[in-house]
Amino acid sequence: MVADPWSWYAEIPIVSRLYLTASFLTTAACALDLVSPFSLYYDFSLIFRKGQAWRLVSNFFFFGMFSLDFLFHMYFLVRYCRLLEEGEFRGRTQDFVCMLVFGAALMLLAAPFLAVHFLGSSLAFMMVYVWGRRNEHVRMSFLGLFPFTAPYLPWVMLAFSVLLGNPATTDLVGIACGHAYYYLEYVYPVVAAIRGWTPRRILAAPAFLTHIFGPAPRRPDIPRPVIVEPDPPRG
């Protein structure tokens, strides 16, 4: 059991901790009028015509002012970002970062066509989607009201977010990007191996990330079952 908030914070893995910290500090800076949300949102023309390149990143850290909706997003961001980093991507931080960068790039490409200016919620929904698909047999309940399995979690969250007054488009972008990542990382390699396609893995982490975080631990080989042939009958 965690003794105090600092111990809880220190136990969060590095990528999840950095994202939580950046998101909280960004919201706090906006609440204190140190930074304006208008200087953070994603705008294609401001980035490429006026050189405001920070908007490519800053829009992922703003989740609105302190409110119930902000707490809702922070809870799910920390929970499922951490579950992914400690579970599916345990010992593979470089692959986790690669997933986040891939999702963020897709969102930045899609956002100008959908009039979406803040993509933090989209990235959070992407992580929830990937976690749900990789833990499809986990049974859950939302607010203790009704049970469901993990793959339905992003859709339940989407419905709750809409009830809080948020547009569905932002979160649907995250779900779509999560599905794209899931297909390319987990479905395509299986299909490629069966059909003899190359490359068999499209989203492998680049070498510089492996250099920063270290190589992923080698997974032990699964021994093949030994089949013992019965002795032929003696005539």
Automatic annotation (TrEMBL):
It comes from the Eukaryota. The keyword Amino-acid biosynthesis does not apply. Its main location: endoplasmic reticulum. Keywords: Endoplasmic reticulum, Membrane, Transmembrane, Transmembrane helix. It is a multi-pass membrane protein. The chain crosses the membrane at residues 20-44, 56-77, 97-130, 142-164. Belongs to the derlin family. This is Derlin. It comes from Chrysophaeum taylorii.
